[in-house]
Amino acid sequence: MVDKTSDVRAIDKKREPRKRIAHLDYLFVAPAALFLLLFMVYPVLFNISLSLRDVTAATLLDTSQNTFVGLSNYAKVFQNPAFATTVINTLVFTFFSLVFQLGLGMALAIFYTRSFPGARYMRGLYLVAWTIPIVVSGSVFRWLLEGDAGVINYLLRTLGLIHQSIFWISNPNTALVSVIFVNIWLGLPFNLTLLIAALQGLPQEVYEAASIDGASGWQKYRFVTLPMLRPALLSIVVLGLIYTFKVFDLVFIVTGGGPLNASDVVSTLAYKMVFRDFLFGQGAAILNLLFVVLFVLSLFYIRTTQREEV
User: Fold this and answer.
1) Are 107 and 225 in contact (CB under 8 A)?
2) Residue 203 in this model has a pLDDT that exceeds 60
3) HSE of 229 in the Cβ direction (CA atoms, 13 Å)?
4) For residue 74, what are the contacts with CB-CB under 8 A and spacing of at least 6?
5) DSSP 256
6) What per-residue confidence (pLDDT) applies to 142?
7) For site-directed labelling of 44, which of 60, 63, 89, 223 has its Cα 20 to 30 A away?
8) Nearest-CA neighbor of 283 among 275, 273, 291?
C-alpha cells in the first residue's frame, strides 16, 4: 500500500525553497516601495491635508493647532486675480513653446535625415543644450537678455535693428516672450532627437511607391510622413505638455515670475504663496490643482501609447 502522506510531505519539501525565494522577492522590492511611500505618496497626501487646513508659519509643524477649513483655500485661490493671470500665462507659455519646438524640431529633423558631410556632428551639437543644467542655461540667458549690457541688445544695435536697449526680462510686455524663447531653445533638442529617430524608422518602400505614383515632396510629407509619424508626434506632444505645464526652475531663474507677475506661471505663484507670503494652504491648493492636470495628462499618455502598441 502506497503511503500518500509521505508523498505529500516530499512535495511540500520541494515547494519550500520556492516559497523562500518568493519571500526574498518582496525583500528586493521593499527599498523601492519604501522610497515611493516616503518621497512620492507621503508628500502628496501631506499636501492634500495642508490644502484643507488653515496653516501658518507658527503652526506648520504642529498639526493639532491647524484649523480644518475644507475647500476654503481652493475658493480663495480661484478668487485671487493673480491665479487667473498665471493660468493664462501658463497656457500661453505652454502653447507657443510646444508649437515652435515641434515645428522647428520637425523642420530640422527632416533636414538632418538627409545625408551630407557633417550631419551627424551638427546633430550632436543640438544635444549640448539638453545636457547643460537648467540653472546654467537660465543664468546665461538672463545675462544675454540683460537690458544694458546684454549681448542680444548689442547685436541688434550693431545690425541697426534697434536704437535703444530693450529690457527683455524687466519689461512686463516682453518678459513672458523672453521666457518662451529660452524654453524653446531648451526643448528643441528633445523634439529633434525623437523626430529624427522616428523618421529614420519609417519604411522607405512607401516613399518609393509614392514616387512611382508621381507624388510631390509636399504630398509625400502630407499623406505619407505625417500619418506614419502619428504615434511619435502624439507622444512628443503629450510629454511636452506634461513637462512644459509644470516648468518652474527656468521661469524662476530667468525672470522670477516678474515684473508685476507678468511672467508668473502656476508653479511660481504657488512657490511665492508658500515661501514669500506663507499662505501654505493656498499654495498647497494650487499645487494640488496642478497635480490633477498632470495626472490626467499622464493617464492620457499611457492610454494613447497602449492603443498604438495594440
Assistant:
1) no
2) yes
3) 22
4) 51, 285, 289
5) T
6) 92
7) 89
8) 273
Q: Which three cell numbers stand for residue 63?
A: 498639526
pTM of the prediction? Answer: 0.85
Distance CA 26, CA 138 (A): 43
C-alpha cell at position 185: 531653445
Q: What is the distance of C-alpha 263 from the center of its chain?
A: 18
Report the chain's mean pLDDT, rounded to a whole number.
85
CA 53/CA 68 separation, integer angstroms: 4
Average pLDDT rounded to a whole number, residues 167-190: 92
Cα-based distances in Å from 10 to 1, 6, 216: 17, 6, 74
Domains and CATH numbers, the chain: 4-51 (no CATH), 72-309 (1.10.3720.10)
Q: Please, are residues 165 and 103 in contact by the beta-carbon 8 Å criterion?
A: no
Q: Which amino acid is at 243?
A: Y
Provide the greatest CA pair distance for the chain. Answer: 109
Question: What are residue 133's phi and psi, to 5 degrees?
Answer: -55, 145
| Residue 209 to residue 52: CA distance in whole angstroms | 62
Q: Which residues are CB-contacts of 162 (< 8 A; sequence separation ≥ 6)?
A: 153, 156
Binned at pLDDT 50, 70 and 90, residue 230 comes out as confident
CA distances from 297 to 90, 91, 282 (A): 15, 14, 23
Measured distance CA(37)–CA(26) in Å, rounded: 15
Place of cell 498604438: 308
Angle formed by the axes of helices 81-112 and 266-275, to 10°?
140
Element (H, E) at 249: helix 249-254
DSSP code string of 162-215? -SS---TTTSTTTHHHHHHHHHHHHHHHHHHHHHHHHHHTS-HHHHHHHHHTT-
Residue 218 has pLDDT above 80, yes or no: yes
